[in-house]
Amino acid sequence: MFDYLYIVPLLPLLGFVINGIFRTRLSKGVVQTLAVGSVGLSFVFSVILFFKLLGLEPEHRLVEQVLFSWIPVGSLNLDIAFLLDPLSSVMIMVVSCVGFIIHVYSIGYMAHDPGIKRFFIYMNLFMFSMLTLVMSNNLILLFIGWEGVGLCSYLLIAFWFDKKSATDAGNKAFIVNRIGDFGFLLGGFIIFWAAGTFQFTELQHIAPEAFVFGGGLVTAATLLLLFGATGKSAQIPLYIWLPDAMEGPTPVSALIHAATMVTAGVYMLVRLNFLFLMAPTTMLVTAVIGCVTAFVAATIGLAQNDIKRVLAYSTISQLGYMMMACGVAAFTAGIFHLMTHAFFKALLFLGSGSVIHALSAEQDMRRMGGLKKSLPITYKTFLVGTLAITGIPLFSGFFSKDEILWKSFSSGHGHIIFWLVGVITAALTAFYMFRLLYLTFFGEGRYDRQTAEHIHESPKVMTMPLIILAVLSFVGGWVGIPHVLRGGAWFEKFLEPVMAHIPLSGHEVHHSSSLEYALMAITFVLVLVSIYLAYYLYRKNIDKVTSLRQSMEGLYRIILNKYYVDEFYGATIVRPVVNGSIFLWKIIDVFLIDGIANGLARLVGDMSETFRRMQTGYVRAYMTVFVVGAVVVIGFLVVR
Amino acid sequence: MTVPLDYYIILSAFLFAIGTIGVLVSRNMIIMFMAIEIMLNAGNLALIAFSRYLRIMDGHVFVFLVMTVAAAEAGVGLAIIIAIFRNRESVNADFLNLMKW
To answer: Above 0.90 for ipTM, yes or no?
Structure first.
């Protein structure tokens, strides 16, 4: 069975190739069936592989399959090879499961779009790239997947390419990601330079000898890789592309910009955990970046009016949690949150897609409201997603978020500040999510009559995925119930073999479980308070919002404009680059380089014009010159 | 009594100079042609003289070669001159100045 690892990414690739080549000849139905079916089969394979893996002893749960040697040059030997261990097993299940559900949903959501075939072709290519990314056994193949998902992200954000804002957003996402990728590559090169291999298992063995614990080399390499991760996983300083990426179709936002692709950075960090653990500085930077991103993005989310943008900032914020988890060496907690987040954020995005679908492409929450009655299934599933993300006990988000918060406090790499910011962020999350819920589903409808007549619950093909995701969002966290809540922490145990054990200098602090209960309670209470606050402001006294807004005019304006980060980058980076490019174009290229080339040509031309006068055409003139020349040469030779 | 080498060389030099000046001065291509023949024969004379002076036969071989070439050249050259004359009714070299810039 393990000989067929490659089947998992191969199936979507086949779907992509067949649909891509025969796009014009195949009917819409066939394209859909192939696209959805290939991803569905991939999911089935992933589950089978997962159970096969479970059948092995924990310490033997690592299977590699080398398909062929790709680039054997000197000491560099790159294989197209796949790796199945608990981490990649979890990842392929999450990716193919959520991917499959979203593919099914897309059938309904994109039904009336003329580009639906193209959509599914891109989606399959994305699934292939993503599965390659998480299954690769070396850094370079991972990078290929990494670039592949970036490409698909670009293609799908700019899916409606006749819309300027969409193509701009696509470009922005691609360019910002490229900046991060540059860091990734440099980090990879440092690793190869020091360790001589790209392969994860070999690297893990060599790392302790190749690198000095906390040394400059490993710190530089991991910091560069972290920079790559901030690009893909939308962290400070490169998070700016993700909110704009909402220009793409909603299933794309759900699949790529919430559930799977943006988690690639976190996955990479976890995959290379043995390296990051060797660089405490990087760990600290990771934790700080995650912590700050989580908080900043959550505050921006408070004031956004576009339903998808709120969710986008929420995604950035949740990714910040995952980063923070990695930074405090709680890699399992990061992956755990990655999984639950994939479920509930995909659910929330698909739910918002259902709302947008019902309201004839309206995305502004100020023109929604009261949809609870007309969209009952969407409302109920959305509520589940909201409860999951806010961290209400029993829902999946509670366990994963709590795990991260606890680790950020208790881990050797942790600090109470991380915990504090994390808890505040959790409260903010609860506030903006319930604000979204109340504005969208409660109160009076604020849409025009024409839209109101068209409101309808989405078809079954869209509501079924919502229901499945709602169930997953509810139960998804149960695999990782911590010991302190009488759980088995099964998830952590499963991922245990992947994690390196490099203790931080200094001793691990042991905390009592009563402290854990207390922290949990504090978080929960704060979350409840902010839910009540959202209820009070957006359900009961909606007019208070305006007065509150006026009383904090300045702050509100800053948050509404996302801290002017885009403007800041525009002024400090984009503008100088554009001006520099114009300078290079007009002065260096057109004036200098073209000037040199054209000037040389003209010089030669002018000289020829002069010298060709020497060709008189008179034989006797030539003879004279010839004789004089001969006399001079011979005279010179004689006299010398 | 043999004639010293110097005499031959001086004669050869004179002949060569006459040939050269002939080529440069005359406009008639036939005359130029003949002047070239004089130059070639000046060379031949020098070669024979050296060959005799040094008592080796290599010079003779060169002379035969030059004579052959001169004969061939005369054949081709005269043919060209005739062709030009048929075209232009003239053998004046200064009228043939089309091959210029």
So the answer is: no
